[in-house]
Amino acid sequence: MKNLMKFIGLAFLTITLAFTTVDKKTIVIDVSHGGHDNGTIVNGYNEKGIALNIANKIKELNKNSNLEIILTRDSDKFLSLNERAEQINKLKPDFVISLHVNAADDKKESGKEIFVSDKNKQKEKSGSLALELFYSFKDRNVEIKKADFYLLKNVEYPIALLELGYLTNENDREVLTTEKGQSELAESILNVIK
Ligand SMILES: [Zn+2]
Asked: Which residues are found with C-beta within 5 Å of the ion, ligand 1?
């Protein structure tokens, strides 16, 4: 009888584990630049800091325990593209979003860009991810483009690179550098990954 109870207990545990693993999702947020690599700098604001702030907010806003969000960096340190690709591929994520901030000589240039590559091993899924991101942003100033950037080619899982706006444009900068703007961006991204 005792053994039977043990067996039932074990069977129950196995079933529970099977169910919990089915729904578990792992998402990587690639936090671009870092350390000596500031990325774009305008008026004392830098891309590396903005990317980290927004990534942290995505993590904080996530209340779904079946959704694990892993950041490629959670401090101000430099990681090469090769190190990033290796780290991400080891995690075998469901998908990856790389966060960046744009700059242009023309201060009127504004809006978001989402990049995907045809050289990605899961390019169909990467394309769907780009579309979902496209529709999640409230403004319609968003473009999907193709580019064979290093991570887009070398990460073996669905991946999109997101340029969140132009730090050189006054309106975009307001969104990128304020608590409210960063939270809204984080929420739009979380809506796609949850
Ligand atoms: Zn960048």
From this structure: 32, 39, 100
The arrangement of secondary structure in 24-193, i.e. its CATH architecture, is 3-Layer(aba) Sandwich (3.40)
- Domain ranges, ordered by start, for the chain: 24-193
Distance of CA 172 to the CA centre of its chain: 19
DSSP letters, 64-95, are -TTEEEEES-SSS----HHHHHHHHHHH--SE
What's residue 99's pLDDT? 98
Cα of 12 to ligand 1 centre, how many Å? 48
Its pTM stands at: 0.88
| Least confident range of 19-28, 88-97, 150-159 | 19-28
CA of 1 to the centre of ligand 1 (A): 63
| Alpha carbon distance 109, 40 (integer Å) | 15
**Ligand 1 centroid – CA 33 distance (Å):** 6
What are the tokens at 119?
A: 């050289």
Whole-number average pLDDT of the chain: 93
Name the token pair of 58: 């995505």
**83-86: Cβ within 8 A, 24+ apart:** 84/30, 84/151, 85/150, 85/151, 85/154, 85/155
